[in-house]
Automatic annotation (TrEMBL):
Keyword set, alphabetical order: DNA replication, Nucleus
Molecular function per GO: DNA replication origin binding
Pfam families: ORC5_C, ORC5_lid
The name this protein goes by in its record: Origin recognition complex, subunit 5
Record's signal peptide: none
Organism from which the protein derives: Neogobius melanostomus (round goby)
Localisation: Nucleus
KW Nucleus (keyword) present: yes
Presence of the UniProt keyword NAD in the record: no
Gene Ontology CC terms, in alphabetical order: nuclear origin of replication recognition complex
Biological process, per Gene Ontology: DNA replication initiation
Amino acid sequence: MKATIFENTFLCNQQHVNELIFKLSSHYIYVIVLGRYTFVTIRYLPHVMVSCVECLSVALLFEQVLLSFFGADAAALLPRGPSLSDFVRIYRQQCSDSPAKQTRYIVSIMEKAEMLRDTDANLLPALLRLQELVEDNVSVILLSEIVWDKFRPNTGCFEPLLLHFSDYSKGELQQILSKDRHPSYSAEFYSSYINILLGVFYSVCRDLRELRHLAALNFSKFCEPLEEGKAKESDTHKLWRNIEPHLKKAMRTVYLREVSSLQWEKMQEMEEKEAGAVRGLSAHTHVELPYYSKFLLIAAYLASYNPARTDKRFFVKHHGKIKKTNFLKKNEKTSNHLLGPKPFPLDRMLAIFHSVVDSRVAPSASIFSQISSLVTLQLLNQASHDDQLDAPKYKCAVSMDFICAISRTVNFDIVKYLYDFL
């Protein structure tokens, strides 16, 4: 009966679960779990989950274990700067005060166990013999993504039993994630959504918790055509076209938690509104921007996305023969458009501007005022402090499509001057 409960709880892990249950029935149970799993818990036994990352000191670890097993009174008995012997003494004292609890198995789970390598040398060997030291039915499970050979103590210790959890396959992830379906929709509909999600994210992410988070985060976007009456559950292709750009944006935030899910959704809505505004702006840029402002923006884009060492190649007539391989000697060429715009000094932008503009333009207050206007329009971003009057730096804040639209209005082929497209 217990095995059946575990199998229903941990899908696609029946073999590992049965092995774990078997080992928990013996007197000496030391299991170290290796692989991609950072969350394995014994739901139907008294247990404590201890994160070795959060427990910055041995005292915090001892306090967390005693607090979870015996309560705040037991944890308060620890002296300041407790030693291992203090922990064992208090633990045994609590067991003697409550002898009935000794008849039950209790489990202490140490997450990110590799952090124990940086603690006292005797802590890890003691945890592996904890049942013997405290004379209680306690098992210690160490969770880690590092193989045991990487942090076995040099002084030797009791060898734990090794239990390796392999990665879930795509089919297993499909089966597990499909169990989280929304009650308002059919199982087939949610399963097709999970299939689309895994088709996008499986190659870059196989963590069950992260995929579950992504599935919950993007499901409302997947259902939008249904709620608006534009599609049916069977219109898989139409639903896919609606969710595809949203999933591509979500790929940039895989494993990141810089903002909450609600904030992320609001940010996506704002980006969509801003994208619409930019699309509207791009259709009228040739009207709204003055002639020289367009060339200033082109010069700023070239300065942001071309390495400074290539300026001679592009803008000096008699620069000599420069082979492209000379630029790739030290390391492979990385696309500057993937790295993003880089800051550049004002002098460099003006030098490029005078090289690409059709006629000779003398530096004047009008040119500098147009640069200020580009900053005000947020087409340029100031990358230096406001009080830095000597050689201020800027970044170009427009996209490739935007600058190509600008270039076409002045008959300038910007692609010929971009190092990424050589």
